[in-house]
TrEMBL record:
Its main location: membrane. Residues 238-420 form the Major facilitator superfamily (MFS) profile domain. The chain crosses the membrane at residues 53-78, 98-120, 146-170, 182-203, 268-291, 364-383, 395-414. This is MFS transporter. It is a multi-pass membrane protein. PROSITE patterns: MFS.
């Protein structure tokens, strides 16, 4: 096990079970980054295909919205079945869907057919992510969960950025057409295979759930999943307040993401190279957030850290995003993504520490479901008004206002529910 949350990181990274879960996450996240970058290149920066803002919004909807249906299933299963088995089979199934996507890309499949395969793969990915998060408290002591979660989530996100970089580099070798994009996408399947192999090394039952609070009828268990997750989140004031902050972040981030992709593709003409630079700066922001979040929470408390992150993101959106120049856009990516990671780590720790183990998987599933919907709605609305080159000061002002509204909403939730 581990020492305290303030102890050096090396104290808990020496634990064998924590390391195995960590490398399972690394493999899965690397595959995610590789897959998403490969698919983005295939659809957005492929000379054989073209996608406008509305088509991009449709892609987001196809990838994320249907997970609101998958979410209750994932939550119920994570709180009912051995999470080790879930991680193994979900990782292998994701690899299979990635290979199917690669075949579809290589043969020129587009539209609903391609998005359906991407939907299946990304839905399983969310399932794996929730399982990894719900399992963490079983491999570290309670007092070390915040630090361990910050370390694991941060370096996992960095590995996703590395995976994206690998996709961009491999794309330069294989070509930007359908055939080259298919090879890049196929390589991402190695991430899921590696995650399954690593997860298989856990002892049965080690990752929980330690207590099963589910009806014997599986169908009824699934039906209860979303409602139970909502009840558990509402009964936990720190989680409720954190959700308010993350709603604002995901909506604002969705707008910024659409603006950024269109600027890089159509205004700056920077292509995948520009998007890779943006991802590198975002990855650096994630890394810094991971190094600082646990210490910031310990010193200032979760409430001040969350509000501070939202205000920082608002300032970055307005002061650095509005000039719409590559240097300021890169710095904005660093600050906004870093602030978003601080928010995520804060809310993750609230769920892991304050929600009972028998409901934790369902809360994480609800977490993903609601925030996917929020991001898709924001992107879809933005796509109806954004110009083709992505230059829209009005949308960046809207994103800034959303961050400030999130800070105010978080403080209001704190005051009403008396959180410190």
């Amino acid at each position: 096990m581990t020492t305290t949350a303030t102890a050096p990181t090396r104290a808990f990274v020496r634990d064998r079970d924590f390391l195995r879960l960590l490398f399972t996450r690394f493999s899965a996240h690397w595959g995610n980054g590789m897959y998403q970058a490969g698919l983005a290149g295939a659809v957005l920066f492929n000379p054989e295909r073209a996608a406008d803002a509305l088509a991009m919004a449709g892609g987001f909807a196809a990838l994320l919205l249907p997970y609101s249906i998958v979410g209750p299933f994932a939550g119920a299963l994570l709180d009912r079945w051995d999470r080790r088995k879930v991680l193994i089979f979900a990782s292998l199934l994701r690899s299979a869907t990635i290979l199917a996507t690669a075949v579809a890309v290589g043969t020129g499949v587009a539209g609903i057919g391609l998005f359906s395969l991407a939907l299946a793969s990304e839905g399983i990915s969310r399932f794996i992510g929730s399982g990894l998060s719900a399992s963490l408290p079983h491999v570290v002591e309670e007092k070390s969960v915040v630090a361990a979660n910050a370390f694991a989530a941060t370096w996992g996100s960095v590995l996703a950025v590395v995976g994206g970089g690998c996709a961009i580099g491999l794309r330069a070798l294989t070509g930007a057409d359908d055939a080259g994009s298919a090879w890049v996408t196929a390589v991402a399947a190695l991430g899921g295979i590696g995650a399954a192999v690593l997860a298989a090394g856990f002892a049965r039952g080690l990752l929980g759930p330690s207590t099963v609070d589910e009806p014997s009828n599986p169908a009824l268990a699934v039906a209860r999943g979303l409602a139970d997750g909502a009840k558990a989140a509402w009964r936990t004031p720190s989680v409720t307040a954190g959700f308010v902050a993350l709603f604002a972040h995901r909506a604002s981030y969705g707008i910024s993401l659409l603006v950024t992709v269109l600027l890089m593709r159509n205004h700056f003409a920077a292509g995948m190279t520009g998007l890779g630079q943006m991802a590198a700066f975002a990855g650096a922001g994630i890394l810094v957030a991971g190094l600082l979040t646990a210490r910031l929470i310990e010193r200032f408390g979760r409430v001040r850290v969350v509000v501070g992150a939202l205000v920082l993101a608002a300032v970055a959106q307005s002061a650095l995003g509005l000039p719409m120049a590559i240097p300021t856009a890169l710095l904005a990516a660093f600050l906004v993504t870093g602030a978003g990671q601080v928010l995520k780590l804060s809310v993750d720790s609230s769920v892991q520490l304050d929600v009972a183990d028998e409901a934790r998987g369902r809360v994480f599933a609800l977490y993903d479901t609601l925030f996917n919907i929020t991001q898709v709605v924001a992107v879809s609305l933005a796509a109806t008004v954004i110009p083709a080159d992505g230059r829209s000061p009005e949308l960046l002002v809207t994103a800034t206002v959303l961050y400030l509204a999130g800070a105010a909403g978080h403080l209001l939730a704190v005051r009403k529910r008396q959180i410190r």
